Amino acid sequence: MPLVRISLIKGKSSEHIRAISDGVHRGLMEAYGAPADDRFQLVHQHAPDELIYDPDYLGLHRTDDLVIINIVAGNWRETPQKKALYRAITDNLVANPGLRPEDVLIVLSPNGRDEWSFGNGLASYVEDDAA
Amino acid sequence: MPLVRISLIKGKSSEHIRAISDGVHRGLMEAYGAPADDRFQLVHQHAPDELIYDPDYLGLHRTDDLVIINIVAGNWRETPQKKALYRAITDNLVANPGLRPEDVLIVLSPNGRDEWSFGNGLASYVEDDAA
Amino acid sequence: MPLVRISLIKGKSSEHIRAISDGVHRGLMEAYGAPADDRFQLVHQHAPDELIYDPDYLGLHRTDDLVIINIVAGNWRETPQKKALYRAITDNLVANPGLRPEDVLIVLSPNGRDEWSFGNGLASYVEDDAA
């Protein structure tokens, strides 16, 4: 279900980006119970002046390694599960590709069960419901 | 009203992309009653390793022709109308540019009537409301 | 808190884009009370055929200077504050870089307090809540 947009400053290796992609997806599997094959991610690489960030907001020091992860995900999770997701993704990206935990910024964008069509024109998660 | 983001792997012709753009917009007109001139779309073309998808999630086989369509649209539609939208867009893209129906992935991102400003600094859909 | 995506047709100067970035952020400070250091923005520059817009929807004439500003922002603002935001951002961009007010299009995408992690794997705005 999640649709993930990963934004970072261009210039990183393919291995670096792949590790981020993998770590985000593993975090979704660990904390949200996302199936291994429920993986849809878009990577946006920006010139330095196209990714504008504050280096110290909330007292956390950020660098040009910052990754902004915007996840469209169903609105039926509660706060504890969201907290678990932040921890899981951040831990994964610290382990590989070795990001500083301050450089992992995650924003969730909620939607509903009937707002996903994974192909064939079906409302994938509510197709059997009366409608 | 809708703001549409169309993401695909780069390398397609302008005609191919234009057909997708047209088919998505016609689907919004058909199923949501969007006016013909209510058309605002952003196309994001990604390198192959920047658009990561599972080729078989939910038993639907996807290819590199996959198009991920993320539509910010008002939250006042009910499920039947959303289902009609998925069918309309997918049918249109199968007809032209000839996509496989499994290669059309649609995600809706809801917002409210007061969350649109189409110019001049106005809240276009609620400007006459008391506020 | 806001995560801002600024989309425009490529070919503008760095100064032009920087003025847009500054004006959007100042608008968020003025109307939403966003802290000066709560600034996270992504700029997407598109080829002309990748940014598709209607030149006259709702009777407002738009040009290739159009800027589409999509802001993920907390869902706790009321309509008057959103209206103030549209006015503030648009006024700022008219002043600098000198955009026509019809060429400023703003779309808000709401989310919740527990949907932001600004680093360290924390749910930045609800970390102290019981959960």
Task: Give the arrangement of secondary structure elements.
The structure is a homotrimer of 131-residue chains.
Chain A: E1 3-9, H1 14-32, E2 40-46, E3 51-53, E4 67-74, H2 79-95, E5 104-111, E6 116-117
Parallel strand pairs in A: 1-2, 4-5
Antiparallel strand pairs in A: 1-4
Helix pairs in contact in A: 1-2
Question: Mind explaining what this structure looks like?
Answer:
The structure is a homotrimer of 131-residue chains. Chain A has 131 residues and is α/β, with parallel strands linked by helices. Chain A has a single domain (3-115), classed as 2-Layer Sandwich (Macrophage Migration Inhibitory Factor). In chain A, 27% of the residues lie in helices and 27% in strands. Chain A contains two helices and six strands; from the N terminus they run βαβββαββ. The first copy, chain A, has a four-stranded mixed sheet, covered by helices on one side. In chain A, helix 1 (14-32) packs antiparallel against helix 2. Chain A is globular. The two termini of chain A are 21 Å apart. The mean pLDDT of chain A is 96. Chains in contact: A-B, A-C, B-C. The interface between A and B is medium-sized, with 33 and 36 residues. Strand 5 of chain A pairs antiparallel with strand 6 (116-117) of chain C, so a sheet runs across the interface.
Q: How many runs of DSSP E, i.e. beta strands of chain A? A: 6
Most residues in contact, chain pair and counts: A-B, 33 and 36 residues
- Euclidean distance between termini CA atoms of chain A: 21 Å
Average per-residue pLDDT of chain A, rounded, comes to 96
